[in-house]
Amino acid sequence: MGDEIVGIDDGTGEQVRRAAAGDEAALCALLDAHRDRLKRMVRLRLSRRLAGRVDDSDVLQEAFAEVARRLPEYAREPRLPPSLWLRHLTALKLAEVHRRHLGTQLRDADREVTLHRGGLPPADGATLAAQLLGTLSTPSQAAIKAETRLLVQEALNAMDMVDREVLALKHFEQLSTAEVAKVLGLSKAGAGSRYIRAIRRLRAILEQIPGFDAF
C-alpha cells in the first residue's frame, strides 16, 4: 500500500512522494492545485459568527502547515486519494478553529470524520441559501433575494441532512459522485440518487423565483 498513492494515475502520486521527501516546489504545486477547492469548502462551512475574526485564508494556512507535517506519514500509508486527504485535514483544522473560537463541542480532531456524523461543521440552510441567491445581482433581483431567502433556507433545512450534505459536496464543493460517496460512507449509486433527489426538490422551489436561472 505504501508504494502506491490511492486513486492516482495522473502523476500526482509522484508529486506527493517528492513533497513528502522535502521537495518544496512539489509541495507548493500540490497545495496550489487544490487550494481553490479547499477554499470553497471552508467558505461554505466557516461559521458566520466568526466573520471578521477568521477567514478562509487563515484556516488554509493552518491546514497547509498540518499537511506539510503529516505528508511523510501519508505517503507511507495512503488510505485516501490526495484530494480527499487534503480535504480531510482541512476539515479537521476547520473543526479545531470552531472549537477554539466558539467552544463548539466537536469530535476529537485526530479521529476520522464523516460529515453526516458531526465531525465537520455542516453546511446549513442559511449558508447554502446565501450561496444560491448570491447569483441574483440586479436591484430587482436583490429585492427578490431578500423576499425569498427564508423560503429557500427553510426548504434546505427541511431536507434530510445527508441529502443536504450531498448537495453541498457535489454542487458547491464540486466533488465527484465517487468522492461524495467516499466522504459520506455511501455507495456511489446511493450518493448519485440522493443528489438527484435533492436537486429536484430544490429546483422546484428555485423555478418559482422570477429571474433566477435554476441549476
UniProtKB/TrEMBL annotation:
One of its GO terms (biological process) is DNA-templated transcription initiation. Belongs to the sigma-70 factor family. ECF subfamily. The keyword Transcription regulation applies. Pfam families: Sigma70_r4_2 (PF08281). One of its GO terms (molecular function) is sigma factor activity. It comes from the Bacteria. This is RNA polymerase sigma factor. It comes from Tautonia plasticadhaerens. Gene3D superfamilies: 1.10.1740.10, Winged helix-like DNA-binding domain superfamily/Winged helix DNA-binding domain. Residues 150-202 form the RNA polymerase sigma factor 70 region 4 type domain. Keywords: DNA-binding, Plasmid, Sigma factor, Transcription, Transcription regulation. InterPro entries: RNA_pol_sigma-70-like, RNA_pol_sigma-70_dom, RNA_pol_sigma70_r4_t2, RNA_pol_sigma_r2, RNA_pol_sigma_r3/r4-like, WH-like_DNA-bd_sf.
